[in-house]
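Input for the complex:
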Amino acid sequence: MLTIGQAGENLCRVACLIHDAGNASGQGGFGAVWGSKKLKAISVIGSGSIEIADPRALLQDRLWTKEHYNFDVCDAENMKKVPASAAMTRFGGPATPMVFWKRPEEARPQACFGCHSGCRARHASGMGNESSCGETMFYTFFDQRYHSNFIVRTLADYLESNGHAFAAQGLDMILGKQTPAAYTATDLVQQYGINAFELMVGLPYLRDLYKMGELGPGKRIDSDLRFDQIGSSDFAEELISSIAHRRGIGNDVAEGFYRAAGRWERQEQDLRSGLLLFPQWGLPSHYDPRGEVEWGYGSVLGDRDINEHGFNQLFWMPTMAAWMGQESPYPAEQLARIFADKLEPFAGDLSLLDFSEANAYSESTVKLVAWHRRYTRFWKQSVLFCNLLLPDFVNHNRPDGVGLTGEGEPRFFRSVTGRALSFADGIELGRRIWNLDNAIWTLQGRHRDMVKFADYIHDVPYGGFGSSKSYMPGKEDGVWKFVELNGRTIDRQKFEEWKSMYYRFEGWDPASGWPTRRTLEDLELGYVADVLEEKQRLGKEVEA
Amino acid sequence: MKRLTPPSRDRAKWITREVGFEERLVGARLRQRSGAVPITLYSLEELLVLLHDPHPLVDLDRLERWLAAPLEDPELAAAVGEIKRLAVSDQQKAAELRDLVAARVLQCKEVS
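Predicted:
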């Protein structure tokens, strides 16, 4: 069953398509698209199956991954072999639900059929079932804050009146308490069909506006939301239903926080200061472009937050290891090499994995971003391999740490479809899809001048909120190490030059970012060039 | 853990008040897949809630200054300064901080 909630029915831009209890097609406002077509749900019931070209080979592939790459869920000792700082790896990692709230004791992992990873959870209470990632995080802080205060106040009053004191450890336990309010809030966004990521970044923004005195009863942004009760189930219901039903400021937020800030005449100043953490295309911050450039550049060249975690291991391993006071499970150069060797057709070029600041505007970064766009356009978004499991660059079950990406994808593809497509063939098909996407955006009116970040990405140094540093592999003074990301900004002029370099590399017109006939015809997309020419949106040919 | 002088009733109330927007402190929670998710802190208790997170990020220099002013708790600020200088991991510092701030909140609650 794939359905919309009331947010979709009321044409909210933040409306999702929801599947099962907690899976959503979050970004892009697809819920509102369905709502506009009066399409409430699609339900599929059937007794058929997917036709497999070579079932025996598929089973052998599965056993091959189990033997060489899967985390062995039957071996309890195995858990100890995975360094905590390497928990980001999913294929070779333990079956741990990827939830960011405190899991209730009566819970179990939930996985797609046949998967050993189990990235979601089901709870005995039925609350918060199947939600994961940011959905399970957006309300937990406020829940703990609100209910901790309440419990501590009540207990303190009681103990004071009875002449007792209580130990700090006891207070620790109380203050760490999470109540059902966090699950309730998450279930509400799923049921109303709202993109939880908007709220994860937007709810602290709303509260900041309230604290600033800009938002509240009788204030410039008039709202009767009871912010003194933020963290309660009642507040969550009040806020989330107001968005879905477009009541009060909910009508503004239904357009997304970016547009809401525009309606409130705060967008420009809040994007400049970074109070409004929406780095590109009016969508909320995820991995920050100032730190992880391949994420930011990929997002701004596309049309959304990419939400593709292929290179996150490069951020997570050194960053978490440093925070924990440990060595990274792999040295910088080895880690870079494991990745670089898999980047067909640029395989072996270590410079693509150099995340030093000096390399952020280079042709190496052009190739890295291009590879990422191509890989994900085909192997993930078309073939639909799981975003959590693949690409599997680093795998802790392998003595050499080398994951199955490059070999695994075409192997499974061949067994299921019967087509002998190489890994590089898939990357090239991804290039074709990426070019088609750019042609569609061009038809919709895109020009390179629109491909830009919010001001804070250029003007406010990254990572100003923590002493702990963030790291990725890079080369400085000729030496591979984990280079620090804190304090970085993206230079406007250099980024514009980088964009020109990128457009040339793709065979697009650097003056406009539009596709050219030669490139499209090379990709057997001549008919797309015809349409663009008819609409006077074909780019000028690039010098070879 | 350093034992702090118990505050007076008025002092405790002042230290644990909610500060305004201009006086806020920004911390973050580090999460796989979500990255570093910033969270604005307006009181000592909110800081404590953040410190109960498995991976809290707080700038210790800023925290020390925040406690000294606007919260006006120089003794707690000095104790944070001591934790900042410990030769241990950031993870261990966060745990030390959590216990220290919990003890301070407790002291304040006992007298208020």
